[in-house]
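Section 3.1: Structural characterization of target chains.
Under the original work plan, the team committed to producing a structural model for every single-chain target entering the pipeline before any wet-lab resources were allocated. The record below documents one such target. The sequence was received from the expression subgroup and is listed exactly as submitted; it comprises 256 residues.
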Amino acid sequence: MARQQVRSIARSAYTGNGGSFAALLTSRSATDFIDKVTTLETIAGRQNAVLGQVVAVGKAAAGAEATAEQAVTKAKATFAAVAAQQRALQAQVTKYQSDFDRLSAQEKQATLAAGEGSGRASRSEERQALVSVGPVVAPSQAAQVAVDTALAQRGKPYVWAANGPGSFDCSGLMQYAYAAAGIGLPHSSLMQSRMGVAVSRGQLQPGDLVFYYSPVSHVGMYIGNGLIVNAPTAGDVVKVVGIDAAGYPTAMRRIV
């Protein structure tokens, strides 16, 4: 509609329709001339208003387009960062598997035994941690389900890109735990760190997610008393550790 009005205005200006000079030539008297000029000024004012609206709409459209382009650029950058992180982790897993495959049967057995010993030690540490924290009480039913589900996975091995039920990586454990509560999370610690609402360390409650490193590349679930449950890294298992044991927290989010 506005574009049609602009075209009409432009056509009128181009052909000279309604100009003051034409009014002078066609007026029968001075009063008639003044009336015509007044009418022309009113029309001109309306035309200026229409043109102003068109300019405002054009600016708004340009702003919306720029915002959309920025969002697309940011999304692409986030995807590229996550993809690079996954490639780096996969390279580590591939190298570990390659190194393991080169071991003799005796060396493989010794390596696996050492891993099992580490797992038993970590589970012993977890039992001590759970004794100190006591029953975990979350602030909402959904958070309680997520906490209980995450804690139930203790002792299961870390496997990159796994989200249960037999093995997990860090974000896969959070995804699995909250899925049990009917809440969907992406399988990415970086993307999870942008969900929910930010909370401070002093505001942490059981069920809140705690993120590490910059850019974010690890996540654990707070269970109270300065502890988190998390899937740490390759060769380790899902376990309870102190909030600072995984590094310095860089973000904390409440999902529910």
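The first helix runs from residue 2 to 15.
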